[in-house]
Design brief:
It is a single chain. The protein is α+β, with helices and mostly antiparallel strands. It folds into 3 domains: 89 residues, Butyryl-Coa Dehydrogenase, subunit A, domain 1, CATH 1.10.540.10; 116 residues, Butyryl-CoA Dehydrogenase, subunit A, domain 2 (Beta Barrel); 143 residues, Up-down Bundle (Butyryl-CoA Dehydrogenase, subunit A, domain 3), CATH 1.20.140.10. It has a 4-stranded mixed β-sheet with strand order 1-4-5-8, with helices on one face. The chain has a 4-stranded antiparallel β-sheet with strand order 2-3-7-6, with no helix packed on it. The chain binds flavin-adenine dinucleotide.
Length: 386
């Protein structure tokens, strides 16, 4: 068993960490205040990421990516997790589901996305279909050679900057012994397609400036050339390519927790009450001890799940455990950090209240904590027939 990183992996960590410290941290206050990422800042982050050779680092070298494996990519995401989501969005990591592109879709979507020329977003969720993706109402019906799409998607991250969106749409229904079951197809939808509108979504308490958008389809016509993967094969492409994205949420939570921890540690060592540093009170120092223990545990769970994927080992349960534990750890760690800061922790003069707000969404997106627990328990009980 080898827990250490190789020299190359250490270099990935230090390169991305210093990028985040130099190129992301200085703009965070502005994004917090305005809720916007200025275009020139976004362009600069993208340009420097390309220059660094890290743009689309999650893609194989044969399509122009950096060819990182799951473990190396988790290390990149962990360091990015320290910085603002709104800003590190431009340290582009296109959806790896684009690897399902066939024929001229490669020239139109995959390769420009990897080169940073076109940005993507991914849309599954609807107002009436969140955890239950198959409950979606957005549907496409055949009309001549085209598909005609009607419906609404919401909570779509990054769609404000996207040139095209990978959208999951119901293309039929099968009757099964358990009742009707939607057939789902993934489509590539260009911004500007007639009948397709992207509009502002809701104002979220987490990750200011990282906007979620609403997509509306009103008799939007899409030719077969826009189908990603097979017609009715949406779940296959989803399971093949989106399976691992929960690791991203877990590892970013670990990165952010380490940043918050450093603030709490320093504050506890410097702040004095009753004539001594508050770190000398066991009520504070034991919180610090619990925080670092949980962070390390989440880190190991997360890297282990990525490593298992690289080894071709089953990893579904391990990824779910990492996601649920790391995101709930982040909630506890940010809350404890805020407690250590006392009243000042709630004030926007320090970034602690921001980390505390930002932590909340991690337990919801990419599958809620309850859904992760469902995945874990199902894997354990299934072999027992329960
Ligand atoms: C800021 C933000 C950005 C997002 N970005 C995207 C995006 O880019 N693309 C995209 O497609 N989606 C995106 N999402 C959607 C996200 O993945 C969903 O919010 C999430 O899957 C939960 O769906 P829901 O919010 O509709 O909650 P619901 O599914 O309505 O769940 C409500 C509650 O019921 C619980 N629950 C539901 N089913 C079960 C069950 N079987 N067992 C136990 N408990 C259950 C849930 O855990 C939750 O506590 C985003 C969400 C947010 C908040």
């Amino acid at each position: 068993m080898q827990f250490g990183l190789t020299d190359e992996q250490e270099m990935i960590v230090s390169t991305v960490r210093s990028f985040v410290e130099k190129e992301i941290y200085p703009h965070e206050d502005l994004v917090e205040r305005t809720g916007e990422v200025p275009k020139e800042v976004a362009d600069e982050i993208k340009r420097k990421t390309i220059e660094l050779g890290f743009y689309a680092c999650n893609f194989p070298e044969e399509v122009g990516g950096a060819g990182l494996n799951h473990l190396e990519f988790a290390l990149v995401e962990r360091e990015l997790g320290r910085g603002s989501m709104a800003l590190n969005h431009f340290f582009g990591r296109p959806q790896n589901i684009l690897m399902a592109c066939e024929g001229d879709q490669k020239e139109r979507y995959l390769l420009p996305a990897v080169r940073g020329e076109r940005m993507d977003a991914l849309a599954m969720t609807e107002p009436g279909a969140g955890s239950d993706v198959r409950g979606m109402k957005c549907s496409a019906v055949r009309d001549g050679g085209d598909w005609v799409v009607n419906g609404t998607k919401h909570f779509i991250s990054g769609a404000d900057h996207a040139d095209f969106i990978i959208v999951f749409i119901a293309t039929g229904e099968d009757m099964t012994p358990k009742g009707p079951k939607k057939r789902i197809t993934a489509f590539l939808v260009d911004r500007g397609t007639p009948g397709f509108t992207i509009r502002d979504g809701y104002k979220s308490v987490s990750h200011r400036g990282y906007k979620n958008m609403i997509l509306e389809f009103d008799d939007c016509r899409l030719p077969d050339a826009q189908v990603l993967g097979e017609v009715d094969g949406g779940f296959e492409v989803m399971n093949t390519w989106l399976y691992a994205t929960r690791i991203t949420v877990a590892t970013m939570s670990v990165g952010r927790a380490r940043r918050v921890f450093d603030y709490a540690l320093t504050y506890a060592a410097e702040r004095e009450q009753f004539g001594q540093q508050i770190a000398k009170f066991q009520g504070v120092s034991f919180q610090i001890a619990d925080m670092i223990t949980e962070i390390d545990a989440a880190d190991l769970l997360t890297l282990n799940s990525a490593w298992r994927l690289d080894q071709g080992l089953p990893a579904n349960r391990e990824i779910a455990s990492a996601k649920v534990y790391a995101t709930e750890m982040l909630a506890r760690v940010t809350d404890a950090a805020l407690q250590i800061y006392g009243g000042m922790g709630l004030m926007s003069d320090y970034p602690i209240e921001r980390f505390w707000r930002d932590a909340r969404v991690e337990r919801i997106w990419d599958g809620t904590s309850e859904i992760q627990r469902h995945i874990i328990s199902r894997e354990l009980f299934r072999p027992l027939g329960a």
